[in-house]
Amino acid sequence: xxxxxxxxxxxxxxxxxxxxxxxxxxxxxxxxxxxxxxxxxxxxxxxxxxxxxxxxxxxxxxxxxxxxxxxxxxxxxxxxxxxxxxxxxxxxxxxxxxxxxxxxxxxxxxxxxxxxxxxxxxxxxxx
Length: 127
Description:
There is one protein chain. By secondary structure, the protein is mainly α. The protein has 4 helices and no strands. The longest helix has 32 residues, at 22-53.
């Protein structure tokens, strides 16, 4: 049956007026970093396969992996791995029924962001 009051109901929030929340932003980035880690893993597999294929293939792959772009991809993949790991820990905490309040969820989002940056810098300096 048709809704006769359709013109007087409020509309769903549109992206232009909807303020993204910390939990939605961090959740989206967890998905993006998961895919980014796959790309970095494929690059590492290509490097190993080229090492097995011979010196010409290895020199080509090694040149790419050790270039400035390859270094950037590897550095960002370290950040993506830490961020994705902390996102998984956050979801395990949520699955146990803890930290579901809005203020605690936003605090955990900030911890994910700051923690992943600090752990990435630690890995870059120490390792």
